[in-house]
Design a protein that fits this description.
This protein has two domains: about 270 residues, Orthogonal Bundle (ADP-ribosylglycohydrolase fold); about 180 residues, no CATH class. By secondary structure, it is α+β, with helices and mostly antiparallel strands. The strands form two sheets. It has a four-stranded mixed beta sheet. The protein has a three-stranded antiparallel beta sheet with strand order 2-1-5. The relative contact order is 0.10. The C terminus is likely disordered. The structure holds magnesium ion. The site of magnesium ion has 6 residues, from helix 2 and helix 13.
């Protein structure tokens, strides 16, 4: 969110101004200000927080309509498009078939507030449809939210590029520099969203994404707003930039931003599998160094380990039900591997296509049992030198696959760092099944 608003403020000095295509410019000028992009970004975020994570399409849409009108009237001089302003002051709750980039510039909170991609995409579509119900308007919002979701879940630039081109049909093959040659900037989704995504893809850090977006010219506040929103999910945003943003905003806006930050943090903390595994390891270390002597104190430590173990299982369960992902390292046949290698570096997530036939990697424990490997993030997977690709898949799917494999003891989560060996009994429990299920047909093959 800060990433989007910082971009809007920086871009505001350069909106539709004739200038050289360069990344060298002052971030802030006397003309810098927040625009409609910021106001509407906050309106979407506030609406989604108010209705809660499980709200229906109808609840979300009517809250959005209410808050779009409320925020626009509270900040009437933020630079709205004419059609939007007419809609704000009209009494129709119908969209007006717009493909303006208003739908995509305001969508960033959607990329942060949900735990799975399907829900993220659906809410992004709904957030667009209340006003921008032209297919391009809807697509722009969905694409930006998707990029934010993927980036914050550890997908790298090459994989995001591939996925977005396939899902949304945008051409992302030209660099910002190439595009700048004949770029005729306007305020449509189709002429700004792919450009902003490209600025995000080729950026070296957060600031570079903003500079790349503004260097194109045209609707620079919105280009930088979208690129900044996506770049924040990939690189984070420097603390001093956050402070700059706060200086430009009204007090109630800063308050709303801090509420959103707290919600994001909360989502992470309570469901963090890595943190729960870390706690388990701490309890086990304590036990190994001073327990195991049958004393009262040692029994207490055993209980603490049991509790920590249940917390790990609970965290996995919560994340599974929220549709979160595991990253599974895969083996590919020689020729499929060769076809991937010029596109993706080893250690990245690959999008699954019908011509790929990945096998799964398993890891042996000292007792000779084999465990299916899964990681909570790509960073965990690449704690050892990357020598394979990953697929990102719903946790439930990984769990189900492990139950189908006859010679597999379970799943090892985060094998290279603080790891957790999850035997089939626990997996069955998490899946709500009685006991391990073995697919005998597969056995015979
Ligand atoms: Mg604007």
């Amino acid at each position: 969110m800060y990433g989007a608003i910082f971009g809007d403020i920086v871009g505001s000095s350069y909106e539709f101004k004739e200038r050289e295509h360069t990344k060298l410019f002052r971030l802030f000028t006397e003309e810098s200000h927040f625009t409609d992009d910021t106001v509407m970004t906050l309106a979407v975020a506030k609406s989604l927080i108010e209705v809660g994570p499980m709200a229906s399409e109808e609840e979300i849409k009517s809250k959005l309509i209410f808050n779009f009108r409320g925020f626009a009237k509270q900040f009437p001089n933020a630079g709205y498009g004419r059609m939007f302003w007419d809609w704000v002051n009209g009494d129709s709750d119908e969209g007006y078939e717009s493909y303006g980039n208003g739908s995509a510039m305001r969508v960033s909170s959607v990329g942060w507030l949900y735990d799975n991609l399907d829900r993220t995409r659906a809410v992004a579509r709904w957030s667009a449809e209340v006003t921008h119900n032209h297919p391009e308007g809807v697509k722009g919002a969905e694409a930006v939210a998707t990029v934010i979701f993927l980036a914050r879940n550890g997908w790298n630039a090459a994989t995001i590029k591939f996925f977005v081109e396939r899902e949304f049909g945008y051409d992302l093959s030209h660099s910002i520099q190439e595009m700048a040659q004949d770029y005729k900037g306007d305020a449509t989704c189709q002429n700004t969203v792919p450009q902003a995504i490209r600025a995000f893809l080729e950026a070296e850090d957060y600031e570079d994404a903003i500079r790349g977006a503004v260097s194109l010219g045209g609707d620079s506040d919105t280009l930088a707003c979208m690129a900044g929103a996506m770049a924040e999910a990939r690189f984070g945003i420097p603390e001093e930039f956050r402070e700059e943003v706060n200086d430009y905003l009204a007090e109630n806006m800063v308050k709303l931003l801090s509420t959103i930050d707290n919600i994001k943090k909360d989502l992470e903390d309570h469901r963090n599998i890595e943190l729960m595994i870390h706690n388990l390891h701490e309890e086990q270390k304590k036990y190994q160094s001073q327990g195991a002597d049958g004393s009262e104190a040692s029994k207490e430590m055993e209980q603490a380990i049991g509790l920590a173990l249940r917390h790990v299982a609970h965290a996995i369960h919560v994340r599974m039900n929220a549709g979160c992902m595991f990253f599974a390292p895969v083996e590919l046949p020689e020729e499929e591997l060769a076809s991937l290698q010029d596109k993706f570096a080893l250690g990245s997530v690959i999008p699954l296509t019908s011509n790929l036939h990945p096998g799964r990697r398993s890891i042996a424990s000292p007792d000779g049992k084999r465990w299916l490997a899964a990681f909570t993030s790509i960073d965990e997977g690449n704690k050892r030198k990357p020598d394979c690709y990953y697929v990102g898949e719903p946790i439930r799917f990984t769990l189900e696959v492990s139950m189908q494999l006859p010679d597999c003891a379970g799943i090892v989560v985060n094998a290279w760092g603080e790891s957790f060996f999850m035997p089939k009994e626990i997996i069955a429990n998490l899946l709500g099944k009685e006991g391990p299920e073995v697919n005998h047909d597969q056995d015979k093959r």
